[in-house]
From TrEMBL:
Family, similarity comment: Belongs to the CFAP300 family.
Keywords: Cell projection, Cytoplasm, Cytoskeleton
Protein name (record): Cilia- and flagella-associated protein 300
Compartment list: Cytoplasm, Cytoskeleton, Cilium axoneme
Main location: cytoplasm
UniProt source species: Larinioides sclopetarius
Protein task: Cilium- and flagellum-specific protein that plays a role in axonemal structure organization and motility. May play a role in outer and inner dynein arm assembly.
Family matches, as Pfam families: CFAP300
Length: 261
């Protein structure tokens, strides 16, 4: 990933450019029973949120800082996120850190090497391993071993660049779940949920004479700090405390995807 960029939230000498209105979008993982049941089983149903907003003004890359500032000054957005206390805040010690997240994967063939290297068998069964713990996460199978343990034989199956991909990240988040997660013995639900969410939150279009499918969304990882202490998405660092902003300039939409451990 590119290095993090810092935006001072209190730097509001400018006039607001972007206003945000909620978009009533249907996300399959939140409404389809089988998918909702997975979120509940993984202890993510009450701690996982998706919020989508429409903005009127034209967006270009030069306005990125402005959009982030306006987003985190929006009364509508802050109420949805549960941070009403930030409304009209002028705290000079508050800053937003944003990090580019690559979003280029177009097929779940990206996960084929998990089967090819027998982390999961062809029917999806995940191979077990000796149990250990990392940041309160139980590592009891080869999938979580590959995801988290850098010394494991299978960790190099995905390069650092591939691990930074948005699809890999949301797959990983589902695999790790919440604090009281009931882990799956089969990998298929994890891939299904990652694929479903990915398709729902990114925008694509056909481009060029060959009508090649191109991802138009821009994805960012977001953290907010006050006096150097994290305050959003959580007050502590953890693999499963995350917030992503998915920007679709074509639709003039921004989606916030977040979870707390």
């Amino acid at each position: 990933m590119d290095s993090k960029k810092v935006i001072l939230l209190s730097d509001i000498q400018h006039l607001k450019k972007y206003e945000f209105k909620p978009v009533d979008k249907i996300y399959k993982i939140l409404i389809e029973r089988d998918l909702k049941d997975y979120l509940m089983k993984w202890n993510m149903d009450k701690s996982f949120g998706i919020f989508t907003y429409h903005f009127q003004d034209t967006y270009d890359a030069a306005n990125k800082d402005q959009l982030f500032k306006d987003l985190f000054h929006s009364e509508v957005v802050l109420k949805d996120l549960g941070y009403q206390s930030w409304i009209n805040s002028k705290d000079e010690k508050t800053r937003i850190e944003i990090e580019d997240v690559p979003c280029t994967i177009l097929s779940t063939e990206f996960f084929d090497r998990i089967y090819e290297n027998e982390i999961a068998l062809q029917d999806g069964t995940i191979r077990k391993c000796f149990e250990e713990y990392m940041d309160d996460i139980i590592i009891a199978d080869e999938l979580r071993n590959m995801l988290l343990v850098e010394e494991s034989n299978n960790y190099p199956l995905y390069t650092a660049k591939e691990r930074a991909e948005f699809l890999f990240l949301i797959f990983k988040h589902f695999c790790l779940g919440g604090l009281l997660n009931q882990y799956e013995d089969n990998i298929n639900p994890y891939i299904l949920m990652a694929k479903t969410l990915y398709k729902d939150v990114i925008c694509v279009r056909k481009t060029g004479s060959l009508k090649k499918t191109t991802i138009m969304s821009q994805v960012y990882k977001v953290e907010v700090f006050n006096n150097g202490i994290p305050i959003y998405p959580s007050h502590k660092h953890h693999e499963q405390n995350f917030s992503y902003m998915i920007l679709c300039p074509l639709r003039k939409e921004v989606t916030i995807l977040h979870h707390t451990w």
